[in-house]
Design a protein that fits this description.
It is built from 9 helices and 12 strands. The protein is α/β, with parallel strands linked by helices. The structure holds (5S)-5-amino-3-OXO-hexanoic acid and zinc ion. The site of (5S)-5-amino-3-OXO-hexanoic acid (KMH) has 13 residues, from loops.
C-alpha cells in the first residue's frame, strides 16, 4: 500500500472561530496552523479563506496572500477550496488564479444541509479547463454516486487529467451517508491509478476516515470536517486532530506520505509547490 497522503482541512465553509476558538481566523493564523499540521505529518493543507477580520471571503487578494503565507511558513502543499457556500460561482472560480498547487472541483449541484451548493455544469467545466491551463491539480469532491459518473464524463471529455485525486465526502445532509458498502462500490468504480480519500463529516468522521485508511486510501481531518474529538469533547486545534489521525495511520504501520512523494504521485506542477 502506498503511504497515505494526510490532508489537514483547517477551516471550512460553515463553522468559524465562534463555533470553536481553536480554529484559525486570519491569514497569519492559517499559515501558523499549516506549519504545525505539516510538521505533524500533513502534506496537503486544504483552506477556506478568512480575511484579517476572521470573515469568510472569496477575495482574490486574500487568496494570493494566503497561498504565499502558507508557502513561506512550510513546504506543505496548498489546496484552496473553490467550494464556499455563500459566494457566487464566478467568485469561487477566480480563486484558482492565485495558483495554489491544488484546488477543489465540485462536479454537481446539491442540497448541503440547509444551504444550496451550486455547481452549474457549464461553469464547472470552464473551471476544470482553467485548472488544466494553470497546472492547478483538482481535488474532485464526490458527494453522491452520480457525481462519480460526472467525473468520468469530465475525464472522457479531456477536462480532467490522470492521475485523478478524489475525495468521497460522506455525512453531508443532501449527499451520501458514511457507509462502508457505498465506499467499497465507489472505490471499485475508480479508474486505475486514482488516488482517493474519504472526507467524513461530523459523526462519520472517525470511523469512515479509519476505514478509508485501512482500504488503502488517503485520509483527511481538521476542523472543517469535525469540531470534536468525541461526542461532547471539543477538539482543541487542527494539530490535535492531525496528530490523532497520524497516530491511527502509524498504528496500522502506515507512514504519512512526504511532500515530494505527493508531488510525484499526483503529478503536481512543481512550480506551484515551491518548497519541495
Ligand atoms: N466541507 C466540504 C464537505 C470544498 O472545499 O470545495 C464541502 C466543501 C467543498 O467545502
Ligand atoms: Zn472544503
Amino acid at each position: 500500500m502506498p503511504n497515505p497522503i494526510i490532508t489537514a482541512a483547517l477551516t471550512g465553509p460553515v463553522a468559524t472561530k465562534a463555533d470553536n476558538a481553536g480554529m484559525p481566523g486570519t491569514v497569519a493564523e492559517i499559515a501558523a496552523d499549516a506549519k504545525a499540521c505539516y510538521e505533524a505529518g500533513a502534506s496537503v493543507i486544504h483552506i477556506h479563506l478568512r480575511d484579517d477580520q476572521g470573515a469568510m471571503t472569496a477575495d482574490l487578494d486574500v487568496a494570493r496572500r494566503t497561498v504565499e503565507a502558507v508557502r513561506e511558513a512550510c513546504p506543505g502543499i496548498t489546496q484552496l477550496s473553490t467550494g464556499g457556500l455563500q459566494f457566487t460561482y464566478e467568485e469561487r472560480m477566480a480563486l484558482v488564479e492565485a495558483r495554489p498547487a491544488m484546488a477543489t472541483l465540485n462536479p454537481c449541484t446539491m442540497t448541503f444541509g440547509t444551504a444550496e451548493f451550486r455547481n452549474p455544469p457549464k461553469q464547472m467545466m470552464e473551471l476544470a479547463a482553467r485548472m488544466i491551463e494553470l497546472g492547478v491539480k483538482p481535488e474532485i469532491e464526490i458527494y453522491d454516486t452520480g457525481h462519480l459518473d460526472m467525473m468520468l464524463y469530465l475525464l472522457h471529455k479531456g477536462l480532467l487529467v490522470e492521475p485523478l485525486q478524489v475525495s468521497f465526502v460522506m455525512g453531508v445532509r443532501g449527499g451520501m451517508r458514511g457507509d462502508p458498502q457505498i465506499l467499497s462500490w465507489l472505490v471499485k468504480e475508480l479508474p486505475e491509478g486514482t488516488s482517493w480519500q474519504v472526507i467524513a463529516v461530523a459523526k462519520a468522521n472517525l470511523p469512515m476516515t479509519t476505514i478509508g485508511l485501512a482500504m488503502g486510501g488517503n485520509a483527511r481531518t481538521g476542523m472543517e470536517d469535525t469540531l470534536t474529538l468525541a461526542k461532547g469533547v471539543p477538539a482543541e486545534s487542527n494539530l490535535q486532530l492531525v496528530e490523532r489521525l497520524v497516530g491511527i495511520a502509524r498504528s496500522m504501520q502506515l507512514k504519512p506520505a512526504t511532500v515530494p512523494e505527493v508531488v510525484d504521485r499526483l503529478k503536481l506542477n512543481p512550480e506551484l509547490v515551491t518548497r519541495t
